[in-house]
Amino acid sequence: xxxxxxxxxxxxxxxxxxxxxxxxxxxxxxxxxxxxxxxxxxxxxxxxxxxxxxxxxxxxxxxxxxxxxxxxx
Length: 73
Hints:
Blueprint: E1 2-8, E2 11-17, H1 22-37, E3 41-45, E4 51-54, E5 63-67
Parallel strand pairs: 1-5
Antiparallel strand pairs: 1-2, 3-4, 3-5
């Protein structure tokens, strides 16, 4: 199962999906586009622990984390 974690002011929410299920995959891609469109940064962790920013939906990513835009003050 793949996982999308959305971080926000209330903590985080987790959305699991089966990448082999076309409907679940479409919902995950829609969530990715919605969140990045709202200014969230999407990142994934590689097998060696390196972090990579995602600019497009990756159906093969096991875990994607969405961080809200930071506002300085």
